[in-house]
Amino acid sequence: MDSKNDKKVIMFQRGSTEAGVTKELDAETLQLLDSMVVGSNGARYLHKNIKERIEQLPHKYFMYLRKNNTLKGTFVSAQRTIQEDFGAANSYYIRYLAIDEMFQATKEKKIRHGKPDGIIKSLTKRFLSQAPVDLGIGYGEDAELPSFHYAFFDAQNFRSTDLSELLGMNPVGEFANMSFTRFSPKKAKEIKKLNVKDFPEMRKKILESYSNFSVFTDQFLFYKSNYFVWMDGDEIVAGIQPNKCEWEVKNMGGISGKIMLGLLPWIPKSKSVFNPKKFEFLTLDYFYIKPGYEKQFELLLEGMLKEFKVKFALIFQDVKSPFMPLLRKMDSGTLSKFSKVPNGRIMMTINKISEDQKKQITKKPFFTCGVDMS
């Protein structure tokens, strides 16, 4: 480590090449992230809400590689102090990985044969092997706490999953990518937007709903004050947090995906259903379901499509999630048949936790949040 201060640490410097970690987002980094196409095989898409998503992240780190004063790659993670069965821990969620052609899908064969050559790969492995605070940069997190990095990767994205294993990240679980769709969604009169004064009581219900999840965070709860509930008289019996997103879809996997991408946009009036250039959808998070009101929860999801004038919603859940049986039973809609995606991988480092602590974390479902994954 050549130098350090409270906002930046240089990890490597030789000639015109510099690599390090900073806490500040600059225009060049944002431009690279904005141009990042996610995925290699199967679905490929551009995030259109990058700036907003990064601004949402507290305690973010940007690992960077510059050559000849030009940014060649960046790796974005976010620190969260979480509570697990064994106590507090520093978790570092890997949010974005944007690299130039050295990481493109044309390199998949080389990657799969265990040759993660290049300075960015060796430095990323070093970065992932410890907490940023151990490098001399931080947000005041307790350096004595157990720590680990984790990420959610599309299982079809070879350049993410295979490379992550080579860099010291191991698969510890799977998550489902589910869509919920309606051609003509309706919103029932029982659906209400939750009043701010009722947030504290609702927070208690949600914390109870997610009490058996690992890496749970409520930092996005009530984001933009968007939380909707189903009322049975004066009682809240179901709740959901919607978040509107936009992607530009470049490719979709499978025959049905290719039909959806190649055919639907050309059918009259179908662009209001699916426009790959401007694919607007919801992510749905922070579920609350009182037992016996499962059908009302499905109607609540449909109501969110009507409320936000979209046809699609995406839901991400660890396959071990207690919500999965209900989600699998629900009528996900006709359009969902065109957008089936294989389970993704949950990846994790074990740089500063014991094997027993790792088992305690991974035996429970990982908390997933659409704001984090869209």
Largest sheet: 16 strands, mixed
CATH homologous superfamily placement of the largest domain: Gcn5-related N-acetyltransferase (GNAT)
In helices, the fraction of residues equals 10-25%
How do the helices and strands follow one another from N- to C-terminus? Answer: EEEHEEHEEEHHHEHEEHEEHEHEHEH
**Beta-strand content bin:** 25-35%
The whole-number mean of residue pLDDT values reads: 84
Structural class: alpha+beta
What is the tally of helical segments? Answer: 11
CATH architecture verdict of the largest domain: 3-Layer(aba) Sandwich
What is the radius of gyration computed over CA atoms, rounded to a whole number of angstroms?
21 Å
Describe the global form.
globular
Tell me which oligomeric state these chains represent.
single chain
Task: List low-pLDDT spans.
Answer: 1-5, 102-117
The span between the termini is: 34 Å
